[in-house]
Amino acid sequence: MAEALAIRFSLRVAASLEIQHLRVCSDCQTLIRAINNRAMVSEIFGVVADINHLSSLFISISFAFIP
């Protein structure tokens, strides 16, 4: 949950700085899968929905799992 909150916060900051292209990397495979596949993980559903909404503010954005 903490990592999802951190990504949401980071997207808000990046959007406020008018960054247009972004790559988000995380070692939390469950979170990255939930974001990329728009999966419903009950514990983080609301935060992932916010992340997906914020993603629309960027020209290009990608989320990658980094082990």
Structure description:
The protein is of the alpha+beta class and 67 residues long. The chain has one domain (2-65). It contains 3 helices and 2 strands. The protein has helices at 2-16, 29-37, 45-55; strands at 21-26, 60-65. The protein has a two-stranded parallel sheet. The longest helix has 15 residues, at 2-16. The protein starts with a helix and ends with a strand. 15% of the residues are buried. The model has no long low-confidence stretch (mean pLDDT 95). InterPro entries: RNase_H-like_dom_plant, RNaseH_domain, RNaseH_sf. It comes from Brassica oleracea (Wild cabbage). Residues 1-67 form the RNase H type-1 domain. This is RNase H type-1 domain-containing protein. GO terms for molecular function: nucleic acid binding; RNA-DNA hybrid ribonuclease activity.
Number of strands: 2
SSE-based structural type: alpha+beta
In order across it, which strands form the biggest sheet?
1-2
Distance between the termini: 18 Å
Mean pLDDT: 95
Helix content estimate: 40-55%
The SSE order reads HEHHE
Count of alpha and pi helical runs: 3
List the quaternary state of the chains. single chain
General shape = globular
Which strand-content bin applies to the residues? 15-25%
Radius of gyration: 11 Å
Any idea how many domains?
1
Low-confidence stretches: none
Main β-sheet: number of strands, strand sense, barrel status? 2 strands, parallel
